[in-house]
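explain this.
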Amino acid sequence: MRKVFISLSIVFAIIAALSIAPVFAEGSDYKCIEDSMPRVIVEGVGKVTAKPDEAIIRLGIVNEEKSLKKAFQHQTEDMNKVINEIKSLGIQDEDIKTISYNITPKVKEGPIWWGKRKPESFEVSHMLSVKIKDLSKIGDVIDTVVNAGAISINGLEFKSSKIEELEKDARLKAAKNAKEKAEVIAEGAGFKVGKVLKASEAMGGHFPVYRERYAKTAVMEAASAAPEIEPGSIELEATCTIIYEITQRK
């Protein structure tokens, strides 16, 4: 009985192998056909430049007091003054937003054996992001907020309200550039460009950013003229990699 059982097991294994083999063979043949399909891989580049029409400025106030209540109070008074001055320049509520609000206890440094110590003071910092849609007002905004009490202006970034349109134009240029390259290569080899088999894209660019930190000083308080800021230009670059099928010319 044992010999019969072993023989039947071998027979079943052979039948299973024979039934599976055509499937693998068919898949392998299909893969070979795909790999042998004539194709050309090209990379296209599309560049777009534009003048920015918006600016984002980040500014803040820091208050330090022995009492947390007083630090809160002075912070609120100072920031409300700054916000009111910003609004007086025509900046809308929706273009002013808080990006950070921090409370930091200040403890005197000392040896570790001093144990747990109470804070000697409290620092309250409040940072705002302000969108400026009229670029001619940038200098006035900086001058106004500094005189109103802002002690730091950290980062000035230029943007475009038409960024989606600019990105679309860059992608179209990249795709056109890729197809032109494919047609030149295919023609030189005696082929013509067929359908797209695969495509991928990436977007990059340069947005003018000024990261200098302005601090409130006697010199700035005494300045009679607002600083002049040059926005420069926005540069976008799209790249795409496209695989085209190519066929013999008739």
User: Anything to note?
Assistant: The first helix runs from residue 2 to 35.
